[in-house]
Amino acid sequence: MTAVLEISGLRKIYRSRKGVRKALDGFDMVVETGQVHGFLGPNGSGKTTTLRTLLGLIRPNDGRMAILGQPVPDRLPQVAGQVGAIVESPQFFGNFSAETTLSLLADAGGVNRLRVPAVLELVGLRDRAKERVKTYSLGMKQRLAVASALLKEPRLLILDEPANGLDPGGIREMRTLMRDLSDSGMTVLLSSHILGEIQLICDSVTIISAGRRVAAGSVSEVLASHTSSTVRVRLEPGVDMLGAAELLRTAGAAITMEKDHFTVGNASNPAQITKLLAERQIYVSELTPVSADLEDVFLELTGTAPVDGTNRQVDQVVAKGGWGQ
Ligand SMILES: Nc1ncnc2c1ncn2[C@@H]1O[C@H](COP(=O)(O)OP(=O)(O)OP(=O)(O)O)[C@@H](O)[C@H]1O
């Protein structure tokens, strides 16, 4: 696979009267061709700064960036025609229809108007194309925004929080659209806080925290490298579950009680659970690792700022203490 987007060692320091703020601190990212790539990070971690820097809207202090193999910002004019981006919510004139809006944008961008029905079809707005934008739902306005970015048939589409403010139906529509675009060969980079969505639609992710990459790779690699040490424990019917949980808790286990089972959150050695219980003639009927989802990984990685001068990659084991080792 070849990279559509490469960023390495990106630094951005904002200086204001209130002081100096390091927004990007040696940030790296690689997005491969044809992928839907999720860009995740908590509020203020540097996502928008990264996207704005890529698009030449902010000047970085240091680092290298390339889009479609061309160094940017120097050669941005050469690749700009192949990049569609929505980094700030575009404002549309409510009295114009989607069709008129896109036709005007096509004229302004030197794009053939014949492209307008095609993008309306792509984003699922064809049937409502002649209605005024002010009658549209938020989800439809978001899709119109995507349509405007698609006019020039970009090879790379960059979207900052495209699902923001959408209800579950709108989010589902956006998910289908992203997949369709990717299936058509486009590379999509999207930032989002909605981690369940990212897990569903993205092939790969980069997680940023405090201006640095803390994880990157395919969604399955990132999940696999942060397998949770939580296990679910179910006991034989009729066994005193509370007593068993208390026994383990006294031994240092982090117990969460559920209706018909409990979980041990820090079980780095699950055998210790069966051993302790069996010593009291309590036998488990189920001992299952609880798999981590992207949200667990995100919280674990971004809960603490990365150590100075390091980027933790998916292949680097996270050292964390656990009960029962
Ligand atoms: N123009 C600016 N002047 C000073 N500081 C700024 C400016 N823009 C952003 N910052 C700061 O830089 C850091 C990164 O901000 P950025 O907007 O890139 O984060 P983000 O990950 O996009 O956050 P969010 O998810 O909240 O949009 C934050 O601490 C923010 O307060």
Automatic annotation (TrEMBL):
A Pfam family it matches: ABC_tran
Segments forming domain ABC transporter: 5-235
Keyword terms: ATP-binding, Nucleotide-binding, Transport
PANTHER family according to UniProt: ABC TRANSPORTER, ATP-BINDING PROTEIN
InterPro entries: AAA+_ATPase, ABC_transporter-like_ATP-bd, ABC_transporter-like_CS, P-loop_NTPase
Family as reported in the entry's similarity comment: Belongs to the ABC transporter superfamily.
Name of the protein in its database record: ABC transporter ATP-binding protein
Molecular function as annotated in GO: ATP binding; ATP hydrolysis activity
SMART domains, A to Z: AAA (SM00382)
Gene3D superfamilies per UniProt: P-loop containing nucleotide triphosphate hydrolases
Signal peptide range in chain numbering: none
Keyword RNA-binding: no
UniProt keyword Mitochondrion, yes or no: no
